[in-house]
Design brief:
26% of the residues lie in helices and 39% in strands. The protein has 141 residues and is of the alpha+beta class. Strand 1 and strand 2 form a beta hairpin. 6% of the residues are buried.
């Protein structure tokens, strides 16, 4: 009787292992991996020349009153248009390799800040490569 229970339990465990092993086997077709609209668009290849590096810094300050309601806002975030404006000043057509970092410089007082108000301060730093386009290449990918 005891041996029969052990045999049934062993058979059940073996069946579960077989089911798990067979269900883990999958096949993935890596040849077709179109995931977004850009995979279906025809992109013109353009040659470019580097004009220089564009760097921007900005600061954003939000003063919040009781319960975190914004009472004043100063400064701004860095936008792509700001980088393009700086690139145009250098004589460039566009920017590539854009990187925008945000650093939180706020000082927080736990538990009290929602009762007495607080200030959020963010510093932004952006860098990009300013380029000018040459003639578009005739060949497409």
């Amino acid at each position: 009787m005891y041996a029969r229970r052990i045999l049934k339990a062993a058979a059940l465990v073996a069946a579960q292992i077989v089911v798990l092993a067979l269900s883990a086997c999958t096949t993935t077709n890596l040849g077709i991996s179109k995931t977004g609209w850009s995979d279906y668009a025809t992109i013109a290849i353009k040659d470019y020349a580097v004009v220089g590096i564009v760097r921007l810094t900005s600061e954003e300050i939000n003063e919040r009153s009781v319960f975190g309601i914004v009472s004043s806002h100063r400064g701004s975030q860095i936008t792509y248009d700001m980088l393009i404006e700086q690139a145009k000043a250098l004589g460039a057509d566009d920017v590539i390799n854009v990187r925008i970092d945000r650093r939180d410089e706020s000082t927080h007082v736990p538990m009290l800040e929602w009762l007495i108000g607080f200030t959020e301060k963010y510093a932004y730093t952006a860098t990009a490569l300013a380029i000018t386009y040459r003639d578009a290449l005739a060949e497409q990918l």
